[in-house]
Specification:
The complex is a heterodimer. Chain A is mainly α. Chain A has 11 helices and no strands. In chain A, helix 3 packs across helix 4 and helix 9 runs parallel beside helix 10. The longest helix of chain A has 37 residues. Helix content of chain B is 33%, strand content 24%. In chain B, a hairpin with a 5-residue loop joins strand 11 and strand 12. The longest helix of chain B is centred in the N-terminal third of the chain and has 18 residues. The chains are: A mainly alpha, B alpha/beta.
Chain lengths: 287, 596
C-alpha cells in the first residue's frame, strides 16, 4: 500500500510550495485523497468491531452511540465494514489503475516513436482487445481460475490498458511531431530519451486526468463483480460490494447504503479534483 | 466639416475594476475624416488591435473600455447597450481579420457566408445580396466572380479567402472598415494583389477605414494618416508622408530602421573556398521512390548548392516552394530520394540512424517558431544544458558555467537559466532557440525562418546577433526566409526556390538590380517600398501570354503557369536550360536575355 502512496506522491511532487499553490478545489481534493489513503492504511486498526461479526440486534439500524453509522443487512457494524473495505477499493483500484495507465502510456510511447509497422501491429492488437466485452472476459477468467485479489488486480489492469493506450497514443503521436522533438532527433538523441524527457512530461497532465477516470471505472467494475459474487469474496467487502449487499436498505434510507455510496463519491471526486488542480505545466524532476 | 470618427482619451484596462487593473491602452486620441484611412502601427502588445476593436464597442475577454469617448458619425459608441452594439457590428462597422482561412466556416459555401451580414441586418433580400456579392467579387479581382460563391473555403487560396472576407465585410456598405493585419499571413507576391484590391474596393465604397499593421511599407501604401503606438500609448501621429519622410519620434525611427535591415558586411577573413556543405542533384519528397530516384510526390527537384566554411547561403521562396524541406533533408529528418549531400568532404548519410554524433553536432537546425521548438516542460538551463552534456560531456558546475556563458553570448541575463520558457518573450525564446544550437559548437546552422514570427525590431536584433556570431565564431548559415529584404541583408549567396526547383542562384550583388529570372523579378517587384504612392506606380502585371497545350510528360519550367514572358512552343515543350547572367547569377530559363 505504501508503495502506491509513494508513487502517487512522486508523480505530483513539483516544488516545495506546490500545496500552497493549489486552488481551493485542489486542496479539498488533496484532503479527501489523504483521508482515504490514511483510512486504507489504518482502517482495520481503527474499526471498533470485527467487520464480520454480527454485533447489532437490528438490521439497517440508523446512526447511534454504540454503532455510529448503524448496522447493515445482517446486523454488522457499518463503520467497521467501511473502514476495512476502503483498503480494497483504494488499494486494489488504485493499483490496477496505475498499472493500466503506466502500461498504456509506455506502449503508446513505443508506438509513437517506433517504425510504422510496429505501431500498426500494436494498435491493431489493442483494437482486438477493445473488442472483447470486458465483463464477460472478467467472468470467464474468474470462473476458470477462481477469484483472488491478484487475479482481480490483473483483470482490472488488463481491461483498462487498451483505453489508456488509445488516449496516450493520440497524445504521443501529436507530441512526436512537435518541433522540439524534431530538434532532439537531429541532435542524435536515442528514442528512450525522447520518449521520457521530451514527450512524457507534456502528456502527463492529460494522462493523470485519464487515470482519475479509469480509477472510477475500476471501482465501479470491481463492485459490479462483487455483486455477482465474483469480486472481493465475503466476509471481506470493498466499498462497491457494501453498496450492493445493502441495496435493499435503500427504501429505508439506511446509513448502511448511504455511507459506502458517499465514501465512493468522496473518493472518486477527491481524486479527480486533485488531478484537475495540478499545475498544467509540470516542472521536470532531475533525473 | 466634422470628422467622421472621433476617439478621445481612450483607456482600456485588463483585470478587475479596482486599482489592480492593468492599463493596456491609455490616453489615445484621434479623428478620421469621412473616407479617410488611418493606420495604427506598432509591435505586438502595442494595443493596436485593442484600439481598433473598441470602435465596435468591443473589448476582448478580460478587458474593458474604462474611459474616453468614441464617436462614429452621430453615434456615441460608449453609450450603446448590447442590443445597440449588435445592430452596429457587421452593419455600420465591419472587421477583416488577419487569418481569413481560420475565419471562414469550412462546412458552408462561400456565398452563404458572404451574404450573411446583409441578411442578419435585414439590409436586402437574398437575391439582391448575392448580386451585390458578385459585383464585389468582381471589384476585388477574384477569379470567376459569378461562380466562386458556390465553392467551399478549402478550395480557395489564402489570398482569395482574404479578399472574400473583404467582400463579406463590405456587403452591408459599412461606414467604417477595420482591417486587422489583413495581408500579414500572405506571400509577398499575393500581398500586392490583395492590397490593390482592398484599396480599390474601400475607396469605391467611400468607407472610412482603420488599417492595423506592423509593416510600415504596407501602411505607406494604404493610409492617409498614421498613428504610431508603443505599449498602449501614442508615440507619434501625423500625415503618412510626414511620418515616413521625417519621423519626429525616436521610436518611429527605430521601427523604420528595422523595417529595412541594412546589409551586414561580410566577415573580414574571406571564407575559404573549400565547401563545407555541398549538395548535388538532390531530389526529395514523399511517397514511394521509383527506380529513377524520383519520389511519388516530389518536393525538391535537382537541387545543387554549396556553402563554404563561414559563408551564408540564403534560400528564398514562397510557401510551398520546398525551402523547409531542404533544411530537413540536410538535417536528416527527410531521407533524400536521390542525389548527394556532402559535409566537409564526407558523404552525409540520408537518414538519422547512420549519422555519427559528430555529424549531428556540426549541423544544427533552428526552427521558425520558438514556442514549439522549446519544450514547455524544460527550464532554460535544461534546454541549453542537454547539448552541452550530450556532445561535450559537461556536467554540474562546468555545465552551469557554460550555460551562463551562452546566455551572455546571446545577450540575456544569466538569471534566466532557472526560468521555464513559457514565461519568456518571443524574442527571448528565439535567442534561447539559437543558443541551443550554439551550445553544440556547430559548423553549420540551418535557420528556418528564424525572424518571421517576431516583431520587426526584435527580428532585426536577431539578425544583428546572427551576423555578430558569424564574425566571432566563424559559423556558416543556411538562412531560409520568405523575405528578400532579410536575405539580402545577411547572406553572401542567394538561391531562389520556386516549386521545388532552384530558379536562380547567385551572389547577393546580383539581386540588387535586373536582369533576374522572371520569378525573382516578380518577387523583388512585390516588396512594398517605404513611401506612399508605390502601389499606384506598380502597374498591374500583364496577363501571361496565351500558350498552346504543354507537352505531356516533359519536365517543364515550374513557373510556366504564372510567367508573363513565357514563349509558346519553347517553354511549353522543353526543359529550361541553366544560363549564366552578367550579374553573376545562374538562372533556369529559356529567355536568351533575362527579364529586366
Amino acid at each position: 500500500m505504501s508503495v502506491t502512496v509513494d508513487e502517487i506522491k512522486a508523480g505530483k511532487a513539483v516544488s516545495p510550495g506546490w500545496v500552497a499553490q493549489l486552488p481551493l478545489s485542489g486542496k479539498l481534493g488533496l484532503g479527501l485523497v489523504i483521508f482515504w489513503i490514511a483510512t486504507a492504511i489504518a482502517g482495520p486498526w481503527l474499526a471498533p468491531y470485527d467487520p464480520g461479526a454480527f454485533t447489532h440486534q437490528d438490521v439497517f439500524a440508523s446512526f447511534g452511540a454504540a454503532h455510529w453509522l448503524g448496522s447493515d443487512y445482517l446486523g454488522r457494524d457499518v463503520l467497521s465494514r467501511v473502514l476495512s473495505g476502503a483498503r480494497y477499493s483504494v488499494g486494489l483500484a488504485a493499483a490496477a489503475a496505475i498499472a493500466a495507465s503506466c502500461t498504456g502510456t509506455g506502449l503508446a510511447l513505443i508506438a509513437a516513436l517506433a517504425p510504422r509497422w510496429l505501431d500498426e501491429l500494436l494498435s491493431r492488437f489493442i483494437d482486438t482487445l477493445i473488442s472483447i466485452p470486458s465483463k464477460i472476459f472478467a467472468l470467464v477468467l474468474v470462473a476458470a481460475v477462481g477469484s483472488s485479489l491478484l487475479l482481480l488486480f490483473l483483470i482490472a489492469a488488463f481491461i483498462y490498458i487498451p483505453g489508456a493506450y488509445r488516449i496516450a497514443r493520440s497524445q504521443a503521436v501529436n507530441l512526436a511531431q512537435m518541433d522540439y522533438v524534431q530538434v532532439a532527433r537531429t541532435r542524435g538523441e536515442k528514442a528512450a530519451y525522447i520518449a521520457i524527457r521530451e514527450i512524457l512530461p507534456n502528456m502527463l497532465h492529460p494522462m493523470l486526468a485519464d487515470f482519475g477516470l479509469r480509477f472510477v471505472f475500476i471501482v465501479l467494475m470491481l463492485s459490479g463483480l462483487s455483486f455477482l459474487g465474483l469480486g472481493v469474496q465475503p466476509p471481506d467487502a470493498d466499498l462497491g460490494s457494501l453498496v450492493r449487499e445493502n441495496i435493499s436498505g435503500l427504501g429505508e434510507a439506511a446509513p448502511a447504503i448511504l455511507v459506502p455510496a458517499l465514501a465512493i463519491a468522496t473518493l472518486t471526486v477527491g481524486v479527480n479534483l486533485l488531478i484537475d488542480a495540478l499545475p498544467r505545466r509540470h516542472g521536470s524532476k532531475e533525473g | 466639416m466634422e470628422p467622421h470618427v472621433e476617439v478621445k482619451g481612450l483607456r482600456v484596462t485588463a483585470g478587475g475594476k479596482d486599482d489592480s487593473a492593468i492599463t493596456i491602452v491609455e490616453g489615445v486620441d484621434f479623428t478620421i475624416p469621412r473616407g479617410g484611412v488611418l493606420a495604427l502601427i506598432g509591435e505586438s502588445g502595442s494595443g493596436k488591435t485593442t484600439i481598433a476593436l473598441t470602435l465596435m464597442g468591443y473589448a476582448r475577454s478580460g478587458c474593458r473600455i474604462a474611459g474616453g469617448r468614441i464617436r462614429l458619425g452621430e453615434t456615441d459608441i460608449m453609450a450603446l447597450d448590447e442590443e445597440g452594439l449588435t445592430t452596429l457590428r457587421g452593419d455600420r462597422v465591419a472587421y477583416i481579420a488577419q487569418s481569413a482561412a481560420a475565419s471562414f466556416n469550412p462546412s458552408k459555401r462561400i456565398m452563404d457566408q458572404v451574404v450573411e451580414p446583409a441578411l442578419i441586418h435585414g439590409r436586402m433580400d437574398r437575391k439582391s445580396a448575392e448580386a451585390k456579392a458578385v459585383s464585389l467579387f468582381r471589384a476585388l479581382a477574384l477569379p470567376q466572380p459569378d461562380s466562386i460563391g458556390s465553392r467551399y473555403p478549402h478550395q480557395l487560396s489564402g489570398g482569395q479567402l482574404q479578399r472574400l472576407m473583404a467582400a463579406m465585410a463590405l456587403i452591408t456598405g459599412p461606414e467604417l472598415v477595420i482591417l486587422d493585419e489583413p495581408t500579414t499571413a500572405l506571400d509577398v507576391t499575393t500581398q500586392i494583389e490583395v492590397l490593390r484590391a482592398f484599396k480599390h474596393a474601400v475607396a469605391s465604397q467611400g468607407a472610412t477605414a482603420i488599417y492595423v499593421s506592423h509593416d510600415l511599407a504596407v501602411v505607406a501604401q494604404m493610409a492617409d494618416h498614421i498613428l504610431v503606438l508603443n505599449k498602449g500609448r501614442v508615440r507619434e501621429a501625423g500625415a503618412a508622408t510626414q511620418i515616413l519622410q521625417s519621423p519626429a519620434d525616436e521610436y518611429t525611427r527605430t521601427l523604420m530602421a528595422a523595417a529595412r535591415p541594412a546589409p551586414k558586411p561580410a566577415p573580414v577573413a574571406a571564407p575559404t573556398k573549400a565547401p563545407l556543405l555541398e549538395i548535388k542533384g538532390l531530389f526529395a519528397g514523399y511517397g514511394k521512390v521509383d527506380s529513377g530516384g524520383r519520389p511519388e510526390i516530389p518536393v525538391l527537384r535537382d537541387i545543387s548548392l554549396s556553402i563554404a566554411k563561414g559563408a551564408t547561403l540564403g534560400v528564398i521562396g514562397e510557401s510551398g516552394s520546398g525551402k523547409s524541406t531542404l533544411a530537413r533533408a540536410v538535417a536528416g529528418l527527410i531521407r533524400p530520394a536521390s542525389g548527394a549531400v556532402n559535409f566537409d568532404g564526407q558523404r552525409l548519410p540520408g537518414g538519422l540512424e547512420q549519422r555519427s554524433r559528430d555529424q549531428f553536432r556540426r549541423i544544427q537546425l533552428v526552427f521558425q517558431n520558438a514556442d514549439t521548438a522549446l519544450n514547455p516542460a524544460h527550464s532554460v538551463a535544461d534546454i541549453l544544458g542537454r547539448p552541452l552534456r550530450f556532445y561535450h560531456g559537461l556536467k554540474g558546475a562546468a555545465q552551469r558555467q557554460r550555460v551562463a556563458e551562452l546566455l551572455d553570448l546571446i545577450r540575456l541575463p544569466a538569471s534566466l537559466a532557472d526560468r521555464a520558457c513559457s514565461g519568456l518573450s518571443g524574442g527571448q525564446k528565439q535567442r534561447i532557440n539559437l543558443a541551443r544550437a550554439l551550445a553544440a559548437k556547430p559548423d553549420l546552422i540551418l535557420c528556418d525562418e528564424v525572424t518571421s514570427a517576431l516583431d520587426t525590431v526584435v527580428g532585426a536584433a536577431i539578425l544583428d546577433l546572427l551576423a555578430e556570431l558569424r564574425r566571432e565564431l566563424g559559423l556558416a548559415y543556411m538562412f531560409i526566409s520568405h523575405d528578400i529584404g532579410t536575405v539580402r541583408a545577411i547572406c553572401d549567396d542567394i538561391m531562389v526556390l520556386y516549386g521545388g526547383t532552384a530558379v536562380e542562384m547567385g551572389p547577393r550583388s546580383a539581386y540588387q538590380a535586373p536582369p533576374f529570372h522572371p520569378y525573382t523579378d516578380l518577387l523583388v517587384g512585390s516588396v512594398p517600398e517605404l513611401r506612399a504612392g508605390w502601389l499606384e506606380e506598380q502597374a498591374a502585371r500583364p496577363a501571361p501570354p496565351a500558350i498552346g497545350p504543354a507537352l505531356e510528360g516533359a519536365d517543364l519550367c515550374r513557373f510556366l503557369p504564372r510567367c508573363t514572358v513565357r514563349i509558346d512552343g519553347l517553354c511549353t515543350h522543353f526543359t529550361p536550360p541553366r544560363q549564366h547572367l552578367a550579374g553573376g547569377s545562374d538562372i533556369l530559363c529559356h529567355h536568351p536575355e533575362a527579364v529586366n
